[in-house]
Amino acid sequence: PPSCSLEVSSLLNLAPERSLITTPNMPNIVVLGAGVSGLTCALLLARQKGNVVTVVAKHMPGDYDIEYTSPWAGANVLPMSLDKDSRWERRTWPELRRLAAEVPEAGLHVQTARVLRRQADVTPEGLKSAMVDGLYQFSPWYQELMDDFRELPAAELPEGMHSGCEFTSVCINTAIYLPWLVGQCARLGVRFRRAVLKHVSEAAALSHTGERAELVVNASGLLACRLGGVMDDKVIPARGQIVLVRNEAAGIMPTTSGCADGDDEVVYVMQRALGGGTVLGGTYMRGNWEANPDPNIAMRIMRRAVEMHPELTGGKGVEGLDIIRHGVGLRPLRKEGVRIEKELIDGTWVVHNYGHAGWGYQGSFGCAERVVELVDEVLGKAKRESKL
Ligand code: FAD
Hints:
By secondary structure, this protein is of the alpha/beta class. It is built from 8 helices and 17 strands. Strands 3, 6, 7, 10, 11, 12, 13, 14 and 15 form a 9-stranded mixed sheet that branches. A 6-stranded mixed sheet has the order 8-2-1-9-17-16, with helices on one face. It has a two-stranded antiparallel sheet with strand order 4-5.
């Protein structure tokens, strides 16, 4: 009986089995998408008393597929917004830092980010970078946000670098973190279902309760460009090719504003927590849907990584790399920036949360928080609370 399981839950300091205590009157929400965006939304929605949440997705944590971006990410925190007050990144950083410090099973650890501005990228108009973002700005807005921020003195700059900075960041082992998010959601009663949807409004019929959902959160990532009712042609892939190796990167995550190999190639190295290997990147190829790793690009990625970070192979060069796998992920780049807004589509309320390009993890909690606000606007917070 529900009362029994509630008592046991509280004794074990576990969240109560929400599915046992729901009533048909509680706000019923379907989250479409089980990437970092959908899962973080489901978690924050489920933390609010009174919401009944189902996650529906074609791909789930554990899958590796070119249509599913989240598992391929590094992932680390390198603030990218050009916006001086990036709410998404500003609100996410404290939570990721807390998880790294206090929740080891979430799969994050603290690492030092080293951001290098190449001499060749400094132009009279300012700094140009392959990813055209705020990361490489001089005197960046995030110096007040990130701990231990310091500009690098000239003596610490590698050859060919104009300037650079360092700060404390985290690296996320996505193979641990995504399933951890699923577990956190499940503890709060969120249910998970596989489905392939042609139209966003179909999601409303897929709540595990059997009742029609009152609202759908659309966290469909790159596939927002193909989803009926959305068909957002501003969403394109920014192809990221990576090499995952067993070599260790000694606590430093270096990245540069560009490289000599082309405008759509980038350089970064990050060691994942809990034995997740070290990710060598990469590329940022706009409009490119190619799912297979290109061997020539892979060679260039590895060469650049050991040049920038010789510690990886103890001076043995590319031959010293021990490869786990090659991979490709497609960042969901939206030309006008992320879309977080509500919309009534064919009689179904939808709150969109897609188009996070290369910052979906480092903006995840800030964006999900905004989604919760919009859900409250649509469903009415007062209404939800009155149903408790
Ligand atoms: P996805 O992870 O793609 O999830 C979309 C979900 O929607 C999936 O479950 C999919 O099955 C489902 N779906 C879509 N359409 C349908 C449908 N019609 N029916 C059913 N289900 C559907 N970010 C960082 O913050 N830091 C980094 O260091 C970083 N590094 C990156 C490196 C690489 C190489 C890449 C590729 C990305 C990187 N990113 C990084 C970006 C980050 O990975 C993305 O921004 C993020 O994963 C997007 O997540 P999402 O949940 O929006 O989309």
